[in-house]
From TrEMBL:
The lineage of its organism: Eukaryota, Metazoa, Echinodermata, Eleutherozoa, Echinozoa. Residues 15-58 form the RING-type domain. SMART domains: RING. GO terms for cellular component: nucleoplasm. Residues 95-136, 147-190 form the B box-type domain. This is Uncharacterized protein. It comes from Strongylocentrotus purpuratus. Pfam families: zf-RING_UBOX. Keywords: Metal-binding, Phosphoprotein, Zinc, Zinc-finger. Transmembrane segments: none annotated.
Amino acid sequence: MADTLKNVIAQSLECPVCLNTFTDPKILSCSHTYCKACLENLLGCNGNDQMLRCPVCRAETQVPNQEVSKLPANLALKSLIEDMNNQYQFCSNQCKSEDKPQAVVYCQDCGRYFCFTCHNLHSQWPVFISHEVLAMSEIVSGKVSVRRYRKCRKHPKEDEECFCSNCRRFACFRCVVMEHTNEGHRVIEAAVYESSHMKSIEDLKSKADKKRSCFQKYVDFIDEQKERVNNVQKQCTYDINKAFEESVRQLTEKKEILIGEVKGMTEGVEKELDEMKKSAQEHITHLTTIADVVTNKTKIPLDMDALAAHDTLCQGLQKALKQEDPDYKQPRQSSKKGKRISFKRNIGMNEEALGKIAIAVAKTIALPTKDSMYAMVSTPDCKMAVCCWTGGVEIFSADGQHQQQVFEDVNIRGVGFLSNDRYVLLDYSNNITLYTPEYTKLNIMFETLSDDEGGFGNLTVDGDDQIYVSYRIAEKIQIFSPAGGKAIREIPCNGYIPYQITNYNDYLITGSDDTIRLIDKQGVVKYQLTKSWDYLIAAVSQWNTILIANVKNDVGLVSIDEYTNKLKHVQNLVTDYEIEKNDRGCWYILQQYRSGEIAFCTPDRLYIFH
């Protein structure tokens, strides 16, 4: 009876997954228990899912952070297993010894433990010679597992020799008669089921091996593709490094050539200036020497020789003093040649070409009407339209030729073009008028602010054909649809006056004396550039960069620089070019022809830089 109880208890200590005695048993929320390692394997089959499904009842248990170790341990079962492992196994044969001796082997076929004496007898019986016998030391160490006979729990003396396929249970013959004879129960021998089950397992294992082999080939194929991609990466990296080194070599050569060109161009100017300087310094030395000799004589010369020498020196000094004062025009003219030299970087073009040395040469055109320019814009046909408040728009080609005059009877403050080449004019009263490309006035009305309400107005048009009008007194910008009517929106100019506005992609560029601001269409200032005591005018280049003219109005000089869309300096294009000063103060306009020439306009003159 004790052996039977032990077998029943031993069967209860087996994990349903690995069929071995539980190791570190963990309880699921459904109360079923499994080895920790078995649960980790099951969880691993679900990928990254934190839900673990019980293999017996299919109930789900959440595993926090996929850590099975955090599941509760079956402490009672763990303690029972430890107690069972710590107890000695005694001989279960009908041993004639008074005290049950400790077992040294276990016969898998007999299902019995034998002491040393019984083991010797058992091994001598011919019918038992082929039995599988396990040493207790190997069982205790865990090297081998004991295959236990199934004993019926209701009838402990009976083996479970049958298997009910419908109930999925092993049963003894008595249980089959009492519980598994109803219709629908299919009962077979346990050995037949085991044989079939083992065959199914072998089939599954074979299929699993084939599937594993299939996926292993797939993994190997992926490794091959990775290797090919890696080879591509290595080759591209090699090619890039090679191209980079070649580009660096070419750029270095180009750099040296450009530096040589600049040096050659400027050395002549420097030589001219050095000669002027040398001549002036020699005159200074001459004056100093004679003056020192004459004025250092503290005594009046008395004899004839001394008087004669003194008179000669005084005459020489008087002659030197009669020389005209230095002429600043000559060094200024020489320096102009040097200051017109600039480096033109290839922005938006072939970067590898680095750039070229350019000499800023401007063609100067006197405007037909003196002191009348108010606005300027590039036309769709690559010309430049200069607007005059006295009336009309003067059209100039890129080479400075005056093409024609249009809108003679309109006093214009601003001009722009819609995408269909229609003209948008802003007159002296801040009224917007649309004209066809053939100069026919369209009957479309706009409700702008009057000159008294808004103050001096300026105009620009964006890529979506929205019309922007800025006002100096109102300190805001109104946006109009080309369909006319009221402004569809307003942009406040908080704390500054928008003297000039220019459309730039999704932004506006506003100019206010010494400050250029890049604002979004809601009026938020994104970037700002300030140069105190100078007057700044901005325009958009053909390469989508920003051109800014820096005018020193008091001395009549203009410099033009190129900036990024964040108002970071890129390069200088024109340095201190002399322009005619005007009486209207700081009123200038900067634009660029679509063919690349830069147009800078004062109230009286148009300068076209090539």
